[in-house]
Amino acid sequence: MVASQQVSAQLRDQLNLPDHDSKRYYLGIGLIYNNSRFQVSQHSSFLQNDSVMVTEPENIGGFGLAGMHTLRISPRFEIRAIFPQLLFAYKNLTYHIKYPDASKNEQTVMTKRVESILLGLPVHLKFRSDRIGNFRVYMFGGAKFEYDLASNSTARKAEDLVKLTKYDFGVEAGIGFNFYFPVFILSPEIKVSNGISNIHSRDVNLKYSSAIDKLNSRMIVFSLIFEG
């Protein structure tokens, strides 16, 4: 009995933050890299368009910061709210132009960059594995709400760019890994974040907007999360 207690004490001494699982609520901060693009749905008038022949989305990288608020509801499950989440996201649309307008410096292939500053509130349900020493795996899924702080910028109102709406809703899912250190937990995490709202504010009078019906956001997000 004494030997068993000594072994348990030794194992406990080898654990970093051994009492962390007894916390009901804890905070963290995330450093974020995102890779974003649009999913494009062409408008029904696209086939009759005599100027824009093809519209192609491109993946572009961005970055961000986030605050993590986690509430433990059972040994296996946690609810996590990420607020504030501030993402700087960039998305490109490449257009193939049939009749370029030389007076507007147009070429046969034109790339338009759409910049977004996204203030978001994702909420996730996390499922955690058993802790193995100073390591743990978790999976999560949930929903997000985002407000684009740059949606009314001067560039968006320019004649040759695509306008976006302010609000977006979406779903998210991913996987992460907890590494327990003496004074904090480091959690590398990857998730897929897909918008389900049409964020395109179509204008029939604008060449680069009228060819598109819907734009949905697509994003892969890599995070390094520090918690304590």
Describe this entry's structure for a reader.
With 228 residues, this protein is mostly beta strands. It contains 2 helices and 9 strands, in the order αββββββββαβ.
What is the structure about, briefly put?
The protein is mainly beta and 228 residues long. It has helices at residues 2-14, 207-210, and strands spanning 25-42, 52-58, 60-72, 77-97, 109-128, 135-148, 167-180, 185-195, 212-227. It contains two helices and nine strands, in the order H-E-E-E-E-E-E-E-E-H-E.
Keywords:
228 residues; mainly beta; eight-stranded antiparallel β-barrel; 59% strand
Global mean pLDDT: 87
Q: Total strand count, please?
A: 9
Which segments are poorly predicted (pLDDT under 50) over 5 or more consecutive residues? 2-7
Give the C-alpha Rg: 23 Å
**Number of helical stretches of at least 4 residues:** 2
State the separation between the terminal residues, measured CA to CA: 34 Å
Biggest pleated sheet: 8 strands, antiparallel, barrel
Succession of helices and strands: HEEEEEEEEHE
**Overall 3D form:** elongated
Structural class: mainly beta
- Sheet with most strands: strand arrangement: 1-3-4-5-6-7-8-9
Helix content: under 10%
Q: What fraction strand?
A: over 45%
